[in-house]
Amino acid sequence: MVEIAEPIDVWVFFKKTLIQPYMFFWKGRQIKVDKVNLIHTSKFGDTTFYHFSLSSGGNFYRLKLDTNKMNWVLEMVEEE
C-alpha cells in the first residue's frame, strides 16, 4: 500500500454505535465503498482516531477519522 495522508470528504451511515463509510471523494472521483474489511481505533493524547480498511472495485483504502477535529484523511491506497 502507498501512504497518502490527504484530507478527504466522506459520506457515512450511523448504525446504532457503528460508523459505516458509504462513499468518499478523492482526486475528483467518487469512490463507493463495497466492503468495510476492518475497523480499529488508536489514541494520541486525548484524541481517538478510527481507522477503516475498505475495499472498492478491487482496490483497497485506509481512511482515518479524527474524533477531536471531526475530519477525515485518506491514509493509504492500493489501486490496480
Brief digest:
Helices cover 0% and strands 79% of the residues. It is mostly beta strands and 80 residues long.
Protein traits:
7-stranded antiparallel β-sheet; single chain; mainly beta; 80 residues
Topology, number of strands:
7
Count up the domains.
1
Structural class: mainly beta
Q: Helicity range of the residues?
A: under 10%
Average pLDDT number:
96
Q: How do the SSEs run, as a string of H and E?
A: EEEEEEE
Query: Spatial order of the strands in the main sheet?
Result: 3-2-1-7-6-5-4
Distance between the termini: 11 Å
- Principal-axis shape: globular
Biggest sheet record: 7 strands, antiparallel
What ranges have pLDDT less than 50 throughout 5 or more consecutive residues? none
Strand residue percentage? over 45%
Number of alpha- plus pi-helical segments: 0
Radius of gyration: 12 Å
Structure description:
With 80 residues, the protein is mainly beta. It has one domain. Helix content is 0%, strand content 79%. Strands 3-2-1-7-6-5-4 form a seven-stranded antiparallel β-sheet, with no helix packed on it. Strand 6 and strand 7 form a beta hairpin. It is globular. The termini are close together. The model has no long low-confidence stretch (mean pLDDT 96).
Give the topology.
Blueprint: E1 2-15, E2 18-26, E3 29-32, E4 35-44, E5 47-56, E6 59-66, E7 71-78
Antiparallel strand pairs: 1-2, 1-7, 2-3, 4-5, 5-6, 6-7
